[in-house]
């Protein structure tokens, strides 16, 4: 049953930052500056602040219960982003899901030359849809079939051609910087090797592919500064084969992929017991990097960086840019690589050293995924479109769109962020490399207590590549982010000790 409600959250406040004094006034002054900025932002909008009212402010469905002031790192959506998000259409998303289901099965080992049934029919339809979107791009979006032959392997008994359908929207300023969004278009039923039986795969994962197609459509008419890639991958249910090939291809080219999101099972907010959470999406983000070397592990253990991987910074950026009234969603970040002992298409990117994370609905209903379509004692099993909520999928698409647009328009994540360790002392000097973007306006130092999950303080550092903060590196964590002349901020780069 579809319930495409489009409730928006009631999230208001201003962009809270710190004055340059914070670098010299110490932790107390920095804390007072942030509180003052947040309180002023609430007052300017006629809302009581948490500090002024003595308790939490009213909340809407887009945010968890908490104080009225925003996190100091948050970025309110600019007008152009709001316009983009308004174009996301739940009716188009529904049409995509139902079309993919109509192919009967999209099992990776199913027919590749049948025009109406099987993975090949789905592949050809996706190619046509993405090419249709690319027509509006003025030549900036190109579409390709990324095919390879997978030799016999687990769940692939014979050599099988696997094909990803990929649309690339080339950036207008820094095209070598890349962000990827994906969903997998293959499906399965109760038997992972059954390539002929019906496997509708509405939630898993026509829903994620519908997010990708809708984002490709609305992004095609825009000019992001960095390159954005929209991918419908295959072979996920057999072992992440399509995304694995894609990630290895990027690594072989030494491509600068600075962020990747997979959308897998994003079709419903309804749990097995019937409870609903229609304004929450989970985002799984690893702590210790999958690709960490022994040398990097030694540094991490020394400084305590288990919660500061590039993927965790990417997840924090998603909350900062996509948890607001323009999406109507709360982003529940889960500090795991994926669901318990499970995996998804972001993992091959993590294995290649790329920051990546997975979007998944708030509570899965296992009767509606990886199941033969059947009725048992009055209970319907099977991954059918009637169990999808297309308004919910549209809101998930808005979360993805807000994060991707903000990533592509902001400067890239700073490189070479370090804490200088040549001398002992109770102040901290941080340094970083200047980014290649022509419109960089400056940098900000962020910091937090070691027990805090989010960055809590922001210190403007100016248009420079080093800054000294009157805080001991022994007591807090530091990071660096870049901002451009439009006020867009990059993800944070965690400051490691200088080699």
Task: List the topology elements.
Layout: H1 22-44, H2 50-53, H3 79-86, H4 90-101, H5 119-134, E1 141-150, E2 160-169, E3 174-184, H6 202-219, E4 226-233, H7 236-239, H8 241-252, E5 256-263, E6 280-284, H9 294-303, H10 310-322, E7 330-334, H11 347-351, E8 356-360, E9 374-376, E10 379-381, H12 390-409, E11 418-419, E12 428-431, E13 440-449, E14 457-462, E15 466-469, E16 476-484, E17 493-494, E18 496-497
Parallel strand pairs: 3-4, 3-5, 5-8, 6-7, 11-18
Antiparallel strand pairs: 1-2, 2-4, 6-8, 9-10, 11-12, 12-15, 13-14, 13-16, 16-17
Helix pairs in contact: 3-12, 4-6, 4-12, 5-6, 6-12, 10-12
Q: Can you tell me about this structure?
A:
The chain has 499 residues and is α/β, with parallel strands linked by helices. 29% of the residues lie in helices and 21% in strands. It has helices at 22-44, 50-53, 79-86, 90-101, 119-134, 202-219, 236-239, 241-252, 294-303, 310-322, 347-351, 390-409, and strands spanning 141-150, 160-169, 174-184, 226-233, 256-263, 280-284, 330-334, 356-360, 374-376, 379-381, 418-419, 428-431, 440-449, 457-462, 466-469, 476-484, 493-494, 496-497. The strands form 4 sheets. It has an 8-stranded mixed sheet, sandwiched between helices. It has a 4-stranded mixed sheet with strand order 15-12-11-18. The model is unreliable at 1-68 (pLDDT under 50).
């Amino acid at each position: 049953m579809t319930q495409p409600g489009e409730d928006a959250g009631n999230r208001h406040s201003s962009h809270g930052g710190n004055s340059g004094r914070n670098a010299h006034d110490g932790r107390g002054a920095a804390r007072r500056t942030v509180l003052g900025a947040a309180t002023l932002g609430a007052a300017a909008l006629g809302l009581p602040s948490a500090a002024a009212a003595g308790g939490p402010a009213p909340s809407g469905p887009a945010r968890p219960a908490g104080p009225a002031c925003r996190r100091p790192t948050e970025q309110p959506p600019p007008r152009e982003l709001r316009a983009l998000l308004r174009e996301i259409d739940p009716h188009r998303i529904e049409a995509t899901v139902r079309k993919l289901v109509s192919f009967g099965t999209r099992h990776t080992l199913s027919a590749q030359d049948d025009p109406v049934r099987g993975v090949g029919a789905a592949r050809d339809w996706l190619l046509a849809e993405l090419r249709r979107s690319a027509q509006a791009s003025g030549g900036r979006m190109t579409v390709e079939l990324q095919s390879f032959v997978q030799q016999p392997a687990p769940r692939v008994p014979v050599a099988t051609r696997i094909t990803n359908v990929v649309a690339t929207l080339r950036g207008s300023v820094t095209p070598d910087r890349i962000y990827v969004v994906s969903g997998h278009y293959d499906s399965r039923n109760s038997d992972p090797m059954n390539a002929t039986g019906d496997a509708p795969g509405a939630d898993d994962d026509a829903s994620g592919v519908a997010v990708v197609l809708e984002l490709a459509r609305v992004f095609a008419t825009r000019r992001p500064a960095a390159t954005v890639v929209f991918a419908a991958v295959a072979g996920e249910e057999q072992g992440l084969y399509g995304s694995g090939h894609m990630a290895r291809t990027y690594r072989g080219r030494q491509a600068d992929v600075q962020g990747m999101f997979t959308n897998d099972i994003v079709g419903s907010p309804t749990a097995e017991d019937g409870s609903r959470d229609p304004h929450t999406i989970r985002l799984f983000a690893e702590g210790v990097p999958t690709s960490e070397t022994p040398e990097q592990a030694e540094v991490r253990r020394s400084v305590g960086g288990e919660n500061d991987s590039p993927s965790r910074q990417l997840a924090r950026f998603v909350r900062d840019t996509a948890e607001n009234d323009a999406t109507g969603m709360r982003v529940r970040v889960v500090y795991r690589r994926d669901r318990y002992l499970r995996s998804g298409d972001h993992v091959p990117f993590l294995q290649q050293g790329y920051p990546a994370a997975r979007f998944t609905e708030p509570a899965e209903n296992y009767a509606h995924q990886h199941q033969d379509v059947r009725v048992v004692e009055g209970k319907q099993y099977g991954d059918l479109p009637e169990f999808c909520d297309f308004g919910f999928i549209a809101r998930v698409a808005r979360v993805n769109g807000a994060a991707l647009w903000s990533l592509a328009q902001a400067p890239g994540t700073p490189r070479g962020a370090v804490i200088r360790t040549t001398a002992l002392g109770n102040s901290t000097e941080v340094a970083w490399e200047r980014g290649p973007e022509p419109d960089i306006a400056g940098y900000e130092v962020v910091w937090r207590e070691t027990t805090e999950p989010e960055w809590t303080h922001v210190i403007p550092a100016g248009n420079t590549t080093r800054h000294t903060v009157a805080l001991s590196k022994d007591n807090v964590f530091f990071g660096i982010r870049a901002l451009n002349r439009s006020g867009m901020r990059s993800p944070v780069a965690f400051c490691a000790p200088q080699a």
